[in-house]
Amino acid sequence: MKTAPSATPKRPRTLAGNTPASNDGARAHAVAQYEAALRLMQEGKFEKARTAFNQMLASAPPDLAERIRMYINACLQQISRHQAQFSSHEERYDYAISLLNDGNYEDARTHLKKIVAENGQADYAFYGLAVLASMTGDSQSCLEHLTEAIHLNTQNRIQARADSDFQDMADDPRFTDLLYPEA
User: With 0-12 CB in 10 A as exposed, 13-18 as middle and 19+ as buried, what is 134?
Assistant: First the structure.
């Protein structure tokens, strides 16, 4: 014996068992996360992008999951390509300065600090950290690193006087006292 169909239609179930209306909000959130992770990739922040994509993968709608996997692989390729091997501290310094010039401040800071950790006499790395601190508005760190760079090599004082990367420090009397102690 057959039963008559129910008078009230059943609501379709979604991945989480929610109604389609509430799923629209979840999908919009997933798409927003996806776009944010893509922006991280475009900015060259591949490790952060990979982490964001991995976090999304478990709960991503099926149509995005395959794309997410593709971008995770692309991030991994970029990360492995950027894990350069350096034969000297000077090579690492040159790479750090190129990162600094490209606006990748955190990566530049990481490489400069690695040089300092491995060679506490690397005045050029302290100088690079001082430039980085100046460019990012950290005047106290700038002064500390530049003081150490000058302590290790007095030529850094002369170089800093003409270095336009310290233009934001020019009005700080501590900076002036450091560069012109004889005044």
Answer: buried
Residues 74 and 93 in one domain: no
Domain with 51, as residue range(s), is: 20-82
- Return phi, psi of residue 86, to 5°: -115, 135
The residue among 91, 87, 88, 92 whose CA lies nearest residue 108 is: 92
User: Do 51 and 39 meet the contact criterion of CB atoms below 8 Å apart?
Assistant: no
φ and ψ of 90, to 5 deg? -65, -40
Q: Full-prediction pTM beyond 0.85?
A: no
Residue 60: the pLDDT is: 78
Instruction: Count other Cβ atoms within 10 Å, centred on residue 122.
Output: 22
8 Å CB contact between 72 and 60:
no
